[in-house]
Amino acid sequence: MPSRAASDDPRLGDVSEGTILRSILSRTKPATATIIGPGDDAALIAAPSGAVVATTDTLVHGPDFRLAWSSGFDLGWKAAAVNLADVAAMGATPTGLLVALAVPRDLRLSFVEQLADGLHAACDALAPGCAVVGGDLTVSDVLTVAVTALGDLGGVRAVTRSGARAGEVVAVAGEMGLAAQGLGVLFGRFRDGETPIPVDAAVLTSQERAAVDAQLRPVPPIGLGPVAAVAGATAMMDVSDGLALDAGRMADASDVTISLDRAALGIHPDRALAGGEDHALLATFPSDSLPPGFRAIGRVIARTEHPVLYDGEPVGPLGWDPYRDWDAAAG
Amino acid sequence: MPSRAASDDPRLGDVSEGTILRSILSRTKPATATIIGPGDDAALIAAPSGAVVATTDTLVHGPDFRLAWSSGFDLGWKAAAVNLADVAAMGATPTGLLVALAVPRDLRLSFVEQLADGLHAACDALAPGCAVVGGDLTVSDVLTVAVTALGDLGGVRAVTRSGARAGEVVAVAGEMGLAAQGLGVLFGRFRDGETPIPVDAAVLTSQERAAVDAQLRPVPPIGLGPVAAVAGATAMMDVSDGLALDAGRMADASDVTISLDRAALGIHPDRALAGGEDHALLATFPSDSLPPGFRAIGRVIARTEHPVLYDGEPVGPLGWDPYRDWDAAAG
C-alpha cells in the first residue's frame, strides 16, 4: 500500500464525493460472487443456495474505536472482521460487504484509502473471495463505519443460537480474552484527549503487542463457521460480548443451561469469561468428535435456574453493554 | 401507533440495550422472504432467483435530516424509502431491510419506537412483503441511520445505468422537484438551532404542505421498478441528486447523450432538473410504448460533447454533492 505524500493528502471537505469514491473504488477488487459491483444503484451478488445470510454491525468513534489508537487500516480490518464473524456464526461463507461510511470533513483522504485497504486485507486473510461490493459515503462529525455482510450457506442448514440440546458438547474456535487484554493495555498505557499519550509499540512486551493487535485487528476463525455447520453443529454464535454473556444468550435461546469447565478456558479463564471482541465461534455439537479447530469447554445440560454455570456455580452477566458501560464524558 | 406517556419515556442512556432492542423488535413483523429474522447473529432471507440485489444508504443528522423537522416516524420512513428506491431501480422487488442505528444517549425511547414504526409503514405502503429483518444498535453523539436493502429480481435481468442506446425513449415515473421545494419551504419558513422556529403545518398552503411531506416522507414508485424491468427497460436509476446530475451519470455510464424536453418536465421544469430526493425512477425504453406509470421526457442520442442536453442546450451539473453543498457551521 503506497502511502500518500502529505502534500497530496487533502482533507475530505476539500474534495468532491466523486474524487473520494473513485479513490476508494480504485482499491476495490471483485468478490467471487459479484455479478454487478459498486457504481450502480445497487450491487448484485450470487446467492447460489437460494437464500442469503445478512448481518450489519457498526463501529462508532468513541465507544467502538479511537483514532488515537486505530489507523484507517485497523478500522477497516476490524469493521470487516466483526461482520464476517456474524456470517460465519450462521455456518455461511461470506460473499460480499456493503460499507456505509460517515466521515468528518477534516479527515484526510489517505485515511479513507487505508480504511479501504484494511477492509480488503481482512477479506483476503479471513474470507478469501469476499470483497466490498457496494457502499455509501456521507458527512458526519462522528466517524462511523456501518458494514453489512452477506453470505451463502452452500447447501447446509443455517446454524442458529437455539439448537443446543442437553447432553451435547460446548466448544469454541479462536481466541478468547486476548482482545479484552489489549483494550486494557490501550486504556492503561496510552491516552487520547487533551494530553494524549500515543500508542508506541516499542514500550510493549511481545505479549502486550499481540493483545493490542488482537483488539485493533481481530482474527476470528471465519473459515471454521462452515466447517462447524458441515460437521453438524446444533447451535453457534460468535463471542462478541464475552463468553459469560454470550453463552447465556445461547442458553436462553435454546432453553438449556451451558455448564463451562474453568480448566478448559486456558491460563486466563476469567478473562476468557468476560472478554469479548475476539469473535471466537461458540458452538454445540452432538458428539465428542469435534471438527478441527474446535476445543471442548463444557457441556449442555437441562435448563436450571441459571443459564450458565462455571465449574457448577452460577455466573453473573459479565460482558459489554454499550448503554451501561460507555460514558462519552470519561472517554 | 399508541404514543408513550412522558412519564414512561426514558432517555436511551438510562435503559439497557436489551430493553431498547425488545421495544424495537416488538414492532417488527416478518418479511415474506424471511427464513430467519432478527435475534440471531445474522438473518436468512430467501433469494429465489439465485442472486441478491443489495444497496446501502445512510441518513446523518445535519446533512440529511434535522430533528427540528423530522419526527422519528418521518426518519424511519425516509430511511426505508431511499433504500427501497435503489432496489427498485435495478428492477428488483425489495425483500428485507437491515437497519444500523447509532443514537445519542439523551434521545427518548419513544423516538426509536416511532422510527421503527416509520420503517415498517414505508415498507407496507411502498413494498408490501418487505420488512426489517435485522439490525444493530450503537451509541453516537450524531443520530445516524444506515439502512441496507435487499431485493430479488424474480427471474428478470438486472437493469443497470449502462444499457441506454441511441434512439431509445427516456422516461420517468414518480415526482420530480417536489421534495426539493419542500426543503426550500423548511429552510425558508422554519429554523432549528439557537432560536428555533418549529415546523407548523398550519401556516403552510396545501401545496407547501404536500412539498414538505414529499421531503420528509418521500413516496418513490417502488413497484414500478420491476414493472419497468419486465417491460424491457434498457437502463434505470433512481433520481436522488436531481435529474440533471443523475441523467448525466446514466449518460456517462452508457456512453450516450440524454436529450431532455423542457416541455415534458411539468410546470416547474427547472425544479425538476435540479431537485433530487423524490427518488423518481429514470429509465430508458427501446420503443414509445411505455409501461403504465412512466412518461416520456426525452430521447437517447449518440454521445456528444455533453452528457445531457436540455431543449438542445448543454446543462451544467446541477444537483446535490454533500461535500460541496453542506456546511455544518451554517446548518
UniProtKB/TrEMBL annotation, chains A, B:
Catalyzes the ATP-dependent phosphorylation of thiamine-monophosphate (TMP) to form thiamine-pyrophosphate (TPP), the active form of vitamin B1. Signal peptide: none annotated. Mg(2+) 5 binds at D241. Mg(2+) 4 binds at D41, T55, D86. The gene is thiL. Belongs to the thiamine-monophosphate kinase family. Residues 39-151 form the PurM-like N-terminal domain. This is Thiamine-monophosphate kinase. The keyword Kinase applies. Its EC number is 2.7.4.16. Keywords: ATP-binding, Kinase, Magnesium, Metal-binding, Nucleotide-binding, Thiamine biosynthesis, Transferase. It catalyses: thiamine phosphate + ATP = thiamine diphosphate + ADP. SUPFAM superfamilies: PurM C-terminal domain-like (SSF56042), PurM N-terminal domain-like (SSF55326). ATP binds at G135, D136, R161, S240. The keyword Disulfide bond does not apply. GO terms for molecular function: ATP binding; magnesium ion binding; thiamine-phosphate kinase activity. Substrate binds at D64, E277, W320. It holds the Pfam family AIRS. Reaction mechanism of ThiL seems to utilize a direct, inline transfer of the gamma-phosphate of ATP to TMP rather than a phosphorylated enzyme intermediate. Mg(2+) 2 binds at D57, D86. Pathway: Cofactor biosynthesis; thiamine diphosphate biosynthesis; thiamine diphosphate from thiamine phosphate: step 1/1. Mg(2+) 3 binds at D41, D86, D238. GO terms for biological process: thiamine biosynthetic process; thiamine diphosphate biosynthetic process. InterPro entries: PurM-like_C_sf, PurM-like_N, PurM-like_N_sf, ThiL-like. Mg(2+) 1 binds at T56, D57, D136. PANTHER family: THIAMINE-MONOPHOSPHATE KINASE.
